[in-house]
């Protein structure tokens, strides 16, 4: 049996349908008709013998096989585009206004953005930090080109690119979870997960008090580092060496946090390039 050869245009059509949420939107981005995009997807499905998208009157959803191929396709397309740019001498330039909660900027994004800047030195990235509830209107009024957003599991805001478990943590050498009530340091009231954290403690019957509310990750971490409080953070935002606290210490499990990417309509070439890079680099590896 001959191994199929994957067509990059068909892979690009698949990735674009998934990113935009439909064939018509994908056609608008790629400059093709809806029927042409649909035909490319069918040819790709025929070549590998797997259904990649489920089509229904409610819209388009990705199958398990589709999710696996989309992750690999993004990496292939990024490498292809970088190779073409290098061979043709094309250098992408421009400025991108990227919004994100400050804990992403503090812990998760610096090494990724540093690699992107090394690959695309003429693209200027302006990072604006704010809670998700403030980032969405900034996208809508054109202040931002794209934003990484925090959302509850399954929310339709943006495109999911990463999941992070929320975990209880304290600074090394301190045991604030032994206090009654438990002293908490949390983000300001606009934080999406603050009511869920409180609800989890209420359900577990653990008394608590909000000892500190901060508007930045640096402020929350400073208070927790002092040993006065514990907090709940996305696992990727936990400083090295800090102590994880769990059910063995009498604290309830916490929900999953999702990181989604949302873009403004008609993004620039530089913005599309950064978005593709973020999705590729932050995406969880496909399960074997």
Automatic annotation (TrEMBL):
One of the Pfam families matching this protein, by short name: HTH_1
Protein name: LysR substrate-binding domain-containing protein
Protein keywords: DNA-binding, Transcription, Transcription regulation
InterPro entries for this protein: LTTR (IPR050176), LysR_HTH_N (IPR000847), LysR_subst-bd (IPR005119), WH-like_DNA-bd_sf (IPR036388), WH_DNA-bd_sf (IPR036390)
The HTH lysR-type domain, residue ranges: 6-63
Record-linked PANTHER family: HTH-TYPE TRANSCRIPTIONAL REGULATOR LRHA-RELATED, TRANSCRIPTIONAL REGULATOR
Superkingdom, taxonomy of origin: Bacteria
Homology family: Belongs to the LysR transcriptional regulatory family.
PROSITE patterns (alphabetical): HTH_LYSR
């Amino acid at each position: 049996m001959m191994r199929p050869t994957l067509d990059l245009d068909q892979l690009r059509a698949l990735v674009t349908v998934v990113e935009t949420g439909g064939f018509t939107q994908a056609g608008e981005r790629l400059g093709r008709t809806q029927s042409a995009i649909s035909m490319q997807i069918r040819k790709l499905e025929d070549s590998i013998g797997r259904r990649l998208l489920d089509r229904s009157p409610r819209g388009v959803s990705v199958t398990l096989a589709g999710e696996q191929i989309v992750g690999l396709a993004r990496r292939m397309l990024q490498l292809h585009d970088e190779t073409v740019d290098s061979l043709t001498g094309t250098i992408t330039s421009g400025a991108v206004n990227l919004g994100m909660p400050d804990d992403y900027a503090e812990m998760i994004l610096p090494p990724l953005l540093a690699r992107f800047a090394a690959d695309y030195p003429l693209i200027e990235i302006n990072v604006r930090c704010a809670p998700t509830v403030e980032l969405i209107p900034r996208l809508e009024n054109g202040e931002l080109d794209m934003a990484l957003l925090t959302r509850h599991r399954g929310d339709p805001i943006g495109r999911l690119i990463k999941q992070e478990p929320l975990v209880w943590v304290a600074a090394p050498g301190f045991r604030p979870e032994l206090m009654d009530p438990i002293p908490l340091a949390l983000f300001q009231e606009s934080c999406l997960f603050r009511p869920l954290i409180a609800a989890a403690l209420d359900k577990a019957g653990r008394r608590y008090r909000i000892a500190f509310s901060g508007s930045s990750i640096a402020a929350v971490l400073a208070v927790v580092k002092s040993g006065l409080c514990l907090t709940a953070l996305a696992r990727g935002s936990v400083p090295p060496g800090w102590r994880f606290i769990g059910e063995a210490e009498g604290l309830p499990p916490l929900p999953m946090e999702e990181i989604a990417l949302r873009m403004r309509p008609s993004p620039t070439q530089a913005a599309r390039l950064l978005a593709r890079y973020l999705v590729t680099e932050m995406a969880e590896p496909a399960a074997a």
